[in-house]
């Protein structure tokens, strides 16, 4: 019974927007398309959107083997930041961040992009040196970045334990105020809605089972829903890219690993920002609805099963409780895993393949979500013009032969 | 966590082992004669099958010896009991 003079509290999520009446059309495959995008996750849908919006190419199919955005797009921890060390990475991730900042208007759809900032904690002297270096590199690239001492860390995120008596005391942190989180499902639906409106076919339950080859061209794809002819093929299959490339006889330095994430039960707002720690390996944010969202590194072995080992998340939880003693009594609600394709230099592979009309987008490993609009923009341009867009040109498959690697291991502020 | 059968020690917890990647990748016989592309493939390129894969594992927190095992990457389950290898 409600006591007079009080009102019942709103249930969690009551402030979130209602779903629209119409999202996208579940299309039947046609016989032929100008562009076939393989993979209906964030990157595939964003590529389709920018093909229509920036290049006027709308005779496009997005083929999804399961349901729309049901792979890594449904499983990531939604962190968006651009504080990467190297110029090449800064270029693509900062382009993405700028697009994120206008994406709600562009898509005409709420994506709940919340620029609450990211703290990357430093726990050792070497962490401090690397972090300060990264702050300077970010600033030179026009990216917002600050170096904060432990007291300033505590001001931004009071629940972080900055006392000196823990195993790895917080020596400071880098802070990117423009970083944030977004609602991953809404992002996918927003892109899908716009692409569908533009006349692009989003075809679900349509798995690519082979390619129709003619010399150094691919003229179509065999799928579980029939053969579809294609002018150009754009691969956006993330963790399953190797299975497609094996069909094409193309080798790429990809290893697929399970990456786990987990959420707590719904809690009152306690965590105002995003905290990442490389040394005490965990990253934590609080979703709009109230769950603490956490993740860490991949399971060490290769795997395509969308689940991981318990000892990995046990270690994550230990790290989280060390840094946030207030979490000690929070209950874990559920955990899951996605399949991420990791490259030797922890940077993506985007661009040409040995086939003149097949373009590759893969290898984003643990960090693909934040790149979604930036990659979609640059990959659509790559597909439309048949050559790599300048922002993705450094990420070609040929860099493993030339040696021009973009080594973001650790340098990107998170271990992979 | 699963149990992994070390050929010397028997079944032990997964946390005692480390994954060593694809089995059967031999150091090039004539390294000096390799092209850049052949080097790239030796250093960086590995199989990434969805299904059974022959892999190197080491019982790092046990006998510290290496062995080859076949594991299904879809289920993460070990398909063969590793055999003693020298």
UniProtKB/TrEMBL annotation, chain A:
Pfam family, one: DAO
Required cofactor names: FAD; FMN
Keywords assigned: Cytoplasm, FAD, Flavoprotein, FMN, Nucleotide-binding, Oxidoreductase
UniProt-listed Enzyme Commission number(s): 1.5.3.24
Catalytic reaction(s) noted: sarcosine + (6S)-5,6,7,8-tetrahydrofolate + O2 = (6R)-5,10-methylene-5,6,7,8-tetrahydrofolate + glycine + H2O2; sarcosine + O2 + H2O = formaldehyde + glycine + H2O2
Primary location: cytoplasm
Subcellular location field: Cytoplasm
Renumbered residue ranges of the record's region Disordered: 1-20
Keyword check for Ubl conjugation: no
PROSITE patterns reported in the protein's UniProt record: RHODANESE_3 (PS50206)
Record carries keyword Flavoprotein: yes
Domain Rhodanese: 35-79
PANTHER family tied to this protein: FAD-DEPENDENT OXIDOREDUCTASE DOMAIN-CONTAINING PROTEIN 1, SARCOSINE DEHYDROGENASE-RELATED
Similarity section: Belongs to the SoxB family.
Name of this protein: Sarcosine oxidase subunit beta
Organism from which the protein derives: Actinomycetospora aeridis
From TrEMBL, chain B:
Xref: Pfam families: SoxD (PF04267)
Gene3D superfamilies: Folate-binding superfamily
Protein's name in the database: Sarcosine oxidase subunit delta
Organism lineage: Bacteria, Bacillati, Actinomycetota, Actinomycetes, Pseudonocardiales
């Amino acid at each position: 019974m409600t006591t007079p003079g009080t009102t019942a509290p709103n249930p969690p999520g009551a402030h979130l927007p209602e779903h629209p009446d119409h999202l996208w059309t579940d299309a039947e495959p046609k016989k032929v398309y100008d562009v076939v995008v393989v993979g209906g996750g964030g990157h595939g849908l964003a590529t389709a959107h920018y093909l229509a919006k920036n290049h006027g190419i709308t005779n496009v199919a997005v083929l999804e083997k399961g349901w729309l955005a049901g792979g890594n797009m449904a499983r990531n921890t939604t962190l968006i930041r651009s504080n990467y060390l190297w110029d090449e990475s800064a270029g693509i991730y900062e382009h993405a961040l700028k697009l994120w900042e206008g994406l709600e208007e562009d898509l005409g759809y709420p994506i709940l992009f919340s620029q609450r900032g990211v703290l990357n904690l430093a726990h050792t002297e070497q962490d401090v040196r690397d972090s300060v270096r990264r702050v300077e590199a970010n600033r030179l690239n026009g990216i917002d970045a600050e170096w904060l001492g432990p007291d300033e860390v505590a001001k931004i995120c009071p629940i972080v334990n900055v006392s000196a008596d823990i195993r790895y005391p917080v020596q400071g942190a880098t802070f990117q105020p423009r970083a944030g989180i977004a609602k991953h499902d809404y992002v996918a639906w927003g892109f899908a809605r716009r692409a569908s409106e533009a006349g692009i076919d989003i075809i679900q339950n349509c798995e690519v089972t082979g390619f129709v080859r003619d010399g150094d061209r691919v003229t179509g794809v065999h799928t579980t829903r029939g053969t579809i002819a294609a002018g150009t093929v754009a691969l956006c299959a993330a963790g399953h890219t190797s299975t497609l490339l094996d069909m094409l006889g193309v080798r790429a330095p990809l290893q697929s690993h399970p990456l786990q994430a987990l959420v707590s039960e719904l809690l009152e707002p306690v965590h105002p920002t995003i905290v990442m720690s490389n040394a005490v390996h965990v990253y934590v944010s609080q979703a709009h609805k109230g769950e603490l969202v956490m993740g860490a590194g991949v399971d060490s072995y290769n795997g395509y099963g969308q689940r991981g080992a318990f000892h990995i998340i046990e270690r994550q939880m230990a790290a989280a409780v060390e840094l946030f003693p207030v979490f000690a009594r929070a209950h874990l609600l559920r955990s899951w895993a996605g399949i991420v394709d990791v490259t030797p230099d922890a940077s993506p592979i985007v661009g040409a393949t040995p086939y003149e009309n097949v373009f590759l987008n893969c290898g984003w490993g643990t960090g693909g979500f934040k790149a979604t609009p930036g990659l979609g923009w640059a990959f659509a341009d790559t597909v439309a013009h048949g050559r790599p867009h300048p922002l993705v040109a450094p990420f070609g498959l040929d860099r493993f032969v030339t040696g021009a690697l973009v080594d973001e291991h650790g340098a990107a502020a998170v271990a992979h | 966590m699963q149990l992994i059968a070390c050929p010397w020690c028997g079944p032990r917890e997964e946390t005692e082992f480390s994954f060593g990647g694809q089995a059967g990748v031999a150091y090039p016989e004539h390294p000096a004669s390799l092209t850049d592309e052949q080097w790239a493939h030796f250093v960086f390129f590995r199989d990434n099958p969805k299904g059974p894969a022959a892999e190197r594992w080491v019982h790092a927190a046990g006998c510290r010896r290496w062995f080859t095992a076949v594991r299904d990457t879809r289920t993460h389950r070990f398909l063969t009991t590793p055999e003693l290898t020298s």
